[in-house]
Write a structure and sequence with these properties.
By secondary structure, the protein is of the alpha+beta class. It has helices at residues 3-14, 21-31, 37-49, 94-97, 118-125, and strands at 54-56, 64-66, 73-77, 83-86, 112-115. The chain is 38% helix and 15% strand. It binds zinc ion (2 copies).
């Protein structure tokens, strides 16, 4: 692992959950001032390919990254785009629930809850 990749991984772990590539870049830049945003993107993609980091590919405007390894789901605020983790009481096996008549081998699924975060809820009540 290169020094750059190591610094990016450290930044991902220090930042609040689900940072964007720009947020990672802004933190890494403090340690490696000459790093470019493109380099950060490339290294993030490599970390995703290695399975170290998950990319949250849901409908949010900006792609966010996640270092949490345990399976979990996300809730996204429809107003400000904040993303948080949610857990479900009983994990249904969606793979088994799918009526798969197309010959696909199901490898995963994307599930996203949407709503209003506590900040936006407060703002809408005022
Ligand atoms: Zn919000
Ligand atoms: Zn998460």
């Amino acid at each position: 692992m290169t020094r750059q990749r190591q610094a990016i991984l450290e930044a991902l772990k220090e930042l609040p959950s689900h940072p964007t590539a720009e947020e990672v870049y802004n933190l890494v830049k403090k340690r490696l001032p000459r790093i470019s945003l493109g380099t950060v993107y490339r290294n993030l993609d490599a970390l995703v390919a290695d399975g170290v980091v998950r990319k949250i590919d849901t409908a949010g405007a900006q792609r966010k990254f996640d270092t949490k390894q345990e399976p979990h789901y996300h809730v996204r605020c429809i107003r400000c785009g904040a993303v948080d983790d949610v857990s479900v009481k009983q994990t249904p096996s969606f793979e088994d629930m799918v009526l798969n008549r197309n010959g696909y081998e199901i490898r995963g699924f994307l599930l996203e809850f949407t709503g209003l975060c506590s900040e936006c809820l407060k703002a809408s009540e005022e």
